[in-house]
């Protein structure tokens, strides 16, 4: 049973040596001696067969472990005598330990292969067990000492990464002890610990140097905190993770439902129940220790800690003791358009007894307003603002959210007209509440850009009370399925993604898909596509609005499903509606005919004489985005089922077909939708620059997903292709193309930043930028020589990484996920398992 300790202590000690390696030639020589000791142990293991005779060999291995211990201690002494190291020395040492990979792999595999032999030998001589365990304990302690010695010699920026490095050793050590005490051998069961991998260590230290430098250049006044890497959120719009072998989708990779790995102390410590959390921790959905005046997380991140002073800060049981009151409101708002709500309503019997009155999880902290923020206190009010201020928020929504993807399903002139008409009580209008909530964030962002000192947490919290009200209204009227409630639910989903509540976003996406199916907006309202029978059917505006709403639900379902069949609820073949028209025709209520999603032809029931000669002239940016999403769906599904695919280098393979389709789509873009200087300024003038950016970033992200077959270690592809030697040129071409598309994303983001943070408003963008960083770092550190930091390619790419980090820093005001993603990029490399 002590074989798990042998395997684990050796792997832990080796990892400690490699991670600590960052010194000059003397340390490099010490590491070489340790490598030789590993080779010696490995050779002895190859002759080890167990039994009583084999016990002598086991004792010989124990003696060789003593030699390994001496080598570690000698290297520790060398490190203690070494002066403080610089970046160049760190990179030199990391290159020296790369050769440990093969030796360590072989050693660990040998220990696993000789597990039964160790059992028979150890059982034969009881005293050998104590000797081996004692020696390995000494190796563990020596490894810790070596790690501390070398870390103390690192430059201060890298020293801050020490918790990230050491916690990995401690975590695995605790896991090994638990497994050993339970009688579970490492690598002998399906739930065993993964095999130790050291090949990533020299590269990850190089990455640490790069990212720390980038972070300081991107935000000189903001210190780098290694602990923040462990708080990195899960990518909601990932599309990049595979299904488990059981066939069940990894839900945590899609919606962030699972928790991050616990730290060593938390591994055994019972979670303490805390009944309060600060504003920042609530917004990021992070555990808060509730300490006043500043919680531990805010102290570590060196940000201002604020606690709300409203009843919502009480625990749920305390809130239930109070009687909720509905705030009075003196103004009202009409429904979406001209008196047609009844047409789009499905009558369902009320079940008031099942309506929940308990506090909802969306409630955000917003009450603490001081000094310069006092003028914006109305953004945190539980009641909707007066009509004049509500109009300002609606304008912010239509400027920043409405143009993105397919969110343009509300007819702006009709909506603003109905706002001024004040036809319905405002407290029952979920759509107005969520529009004001989304607009409030960008209104606060605008105030910050104009010079008002506002923290990102405050900007994200603006309007959160109205979003909470919208959620209550939607869930209360869940049995009243209407187009307006679907619009509100769909926008609420985007809102909760922005604040980092991915579990709620996951559930809302499913609810929106079901509502769209109940409303049957996947079908044309009638064959009267040109609305000639106006007295019998809805208006032009309402019909186009229904189409756009369905397409927007389709996009959300595609992003959540990420190519996993079990998570996809809307089938392409069920969409029997034409693509949305361009924004000009929609705004001006111009009747037009467009094409369908796949066939590139008008709907089949439209007679030939009614069909325009070129329907694409009536299509805008949303239509092209939808066609890209249809291709993206198939790309992600292909990646999830590589075990069923043809070899990618074959001309008729699925890879070749999808690659050709992606490129054909890109080449089909009209000049007004290409990412050129002229198109950028044209789209900026019409508030569509953000939509243009996500159109092109989404394309490059899809190409990265398709070409990820060349980087199975980065994406942990379950059924990766085995590229034979003769296909090396093809593999290198795939890897280079992957890298180039990641760089293209960074270049688009750089251009977008020149025009303001609001251009980066799409909630999918943080994930795309994050993936761009991962790919560029992976290519520089895994696919080329990590020591060659002066090559033109590296010199060109590092500034792109820097700009991505700058963008994420600026985006944290409107995306809760943005700030930690730069740390998550580093964490992915440090915790990578090749």
TrEMBL record:
One matching Pfam family:
Zn_clus
Q: Does the keyword Signal apply?
A: yes
The GO cellular component terms are: nucleus
Q: Which domain of life is it from?
A: Eukaryota
Name where it's found.
Nucleus
UniProt-listed CDD domains: fungal_TF_MHR, GAL4
Q: Which keywords, in A-to-Z order, does the entry hold?
A: DNA-binding, Metal-binding, Nucleus, Signal, Transcription, Transcription regulation
Q: Which GO terms describe its biological process?
A: DNA-templated transcription
GO molecular function (one): DNA-binding transcription factor activity, RNA polymerase II-specific
Q: Where is the Zn(2)-C6 fungal-type domain?
A: 277-307
Q: Where is the signal peptide?
A: 1-20
PANTHER family hit by this protein: ZN(II)2CYS6 TRANSCRIPTION FACTOR (EUROFUNG), ZN(II)2CYS6 TRANSCRIPTION FACTOR (EUROFUNG)-RELATED
> Can you say what this protein is called?
Zn(2)-C6 fungal-type domain-containing protein
Species in which this protein is naturally found: Talaromyces rugulosus
């Amino acid at each position: 049973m002590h074989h798990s300790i042998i395997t684990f202590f050796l792997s832990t000690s080796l990892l400690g040596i490699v991670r600590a390696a960052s010194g000059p030639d003397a340390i490099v020589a010490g590491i070489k001696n340790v490598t030789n000791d590993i080779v010696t142990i490995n050779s002895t293991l190859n002759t080890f067969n167990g039994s009583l005779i084999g016990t002598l060999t086991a004792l010989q291995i124990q003696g060789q472990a003593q030699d390994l211990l001496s080598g570690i201690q000698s290297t520790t002494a060398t490190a203690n005598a070494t002066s403080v190291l610089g970046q160049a020395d760190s990179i030199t040492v990391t290159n020296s330990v790369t050769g440990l990979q093969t030796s360590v792999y072989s050693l660990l595999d040998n220990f696993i292969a000789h597990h039964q032999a160790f059992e028979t030998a150890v059982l034969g001589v009881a005293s050998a067990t104590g000797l081996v365990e004692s020696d390995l304990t000494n190796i563990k302690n020596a490894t810790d000492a070596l790690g501390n010695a070398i870390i103390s010699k690192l430059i201060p920026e890298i020293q801050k990464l020490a918790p990230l490095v050491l916690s990995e050793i401690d975590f695995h050590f605790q896991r090994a002890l638990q497994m050993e005490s339970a009688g579970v051998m490492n690598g002998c069961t399906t739930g065993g610990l993964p095999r130790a991998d050291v090949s990533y260590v020299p590269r990850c230290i190089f990455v640490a140097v790069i990212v720390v430098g980038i972070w300081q250049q991107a935000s000189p006044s903001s210190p780098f905190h290694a602990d923040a890497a462990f708080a990195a959120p899960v990518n909601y719009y990932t599309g990049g993770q595979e299904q488990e072998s059981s066939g069940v989708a990894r839900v945590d990779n899609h919606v962030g439902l699972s928790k991050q790995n616990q730290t060593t102390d938390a591994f055994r410590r019972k979670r303490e129940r805390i009944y309060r959390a600060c504003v920042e921790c609530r917004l990021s959905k992070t555990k808060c220790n509730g300490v006043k005046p500043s919680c531990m997380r805010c102290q570590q991140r060196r940000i201002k800690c604020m606690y709300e002073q409203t009843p919502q800060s009480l625990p749920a049981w305390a809130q239930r003791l109070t009687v909720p009151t509905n705030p009075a409101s003196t103004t009202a708002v009409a429904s979406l358009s001209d008196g047609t709500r009844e047409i789009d309503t499905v009558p369902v019997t009320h079940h008031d007894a099942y309506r929940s009155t308990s506090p909802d999880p969306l409630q955000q902290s917003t009450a603490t307003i001081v000094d310069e923020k006092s003028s914006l206190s109305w953004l945190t009010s539980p009641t909707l603002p007066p009509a004049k201020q509500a109009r300002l928020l609606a304008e912010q929504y239509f400027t920043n959210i409405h143009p993105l993807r397919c969110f343009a399903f509300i007819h702006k002139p009709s909506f603003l007209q109905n706002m001024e008409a004040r036809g319905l009580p405002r407290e029952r209008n979920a759509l107005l509440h969520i529009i004001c909530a989304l607009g409030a964030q960008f209104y606060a962002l605008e105030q910050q850009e104009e010079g008002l000192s506002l923290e990102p947490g405050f900007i994200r919290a603006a309007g959160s009370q109205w979003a909470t009200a919208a959620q209550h209204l939607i869930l209360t009227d869940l049995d009243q399925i209407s187009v307006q409630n679907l619009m509100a639910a769909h926008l609420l989903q985007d809102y909760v993604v922005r604040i980092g509540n991915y579990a709620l976003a996951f559930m809302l996406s499913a609810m929106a898909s079901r509502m769209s199916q109940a409303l049957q907006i996947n079908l044309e309202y009638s064959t009267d596509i040109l609305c000639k029978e106006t007295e019998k059917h809805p208006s032009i505006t309402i019909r186009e609005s229904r189409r756009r709403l369905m397409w927007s639900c389709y996009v959300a379902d595609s992003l959540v499903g990420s190519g996993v069949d079990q998570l996809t609820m809307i089938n392409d073949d069920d969409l029997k509606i034409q693509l949305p028209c361009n924004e000009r025709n929609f705004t001006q209520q111009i009747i037009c005919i467009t094409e369908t999603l796949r066939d590139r032809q008008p709907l089949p029931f439209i007679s030939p004489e009614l069909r325009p000669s070129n329907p694409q002239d009536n299509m805008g940016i949303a239509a092209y985005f939808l066609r890209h999403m249809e291709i993206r769906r198939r790309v992600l599904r292909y990646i999830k089922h590589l075990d069923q695919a043809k070899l990618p280098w074959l001309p008729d393979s699925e890879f070749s077909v999808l690659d050709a389709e992606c490129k054909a789509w890109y080449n089909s873009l009209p000049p007004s939708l290409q990412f050129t200087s002229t198109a950028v300024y044209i789209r900026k003038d019409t508030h569509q620059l953000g939509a243009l950016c996500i159109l092109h970033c989404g394309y490059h992200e899809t190409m990265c997903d398709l070409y990820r077959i060349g980087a199975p270690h980065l994406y942990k592809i379950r059924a990766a292709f085995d590229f034979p030697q003769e296909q090396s040129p093809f593999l290198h071409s795939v890897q280079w193309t992957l890298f180039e598309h990641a760089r293209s994303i960074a270049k688009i983001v750089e251009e977008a930043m020149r025009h303001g943070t609001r251009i980066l408003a799409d909630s999918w963008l943080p994930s795309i930028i994050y993936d761009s960083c991962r790919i560029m770092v992976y290519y520089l550190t895994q696919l080329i020589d990590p020591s060659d930091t002066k090559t033109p390619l590296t010199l060109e790419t590092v500034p792109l990484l820097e700009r991505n980090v700058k963008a994420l820093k600026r985006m944290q005001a409107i995306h809760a996920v943005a700030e930690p993603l730069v740390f998550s990029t580093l964490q992915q490399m440090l915790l990578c398992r090749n």
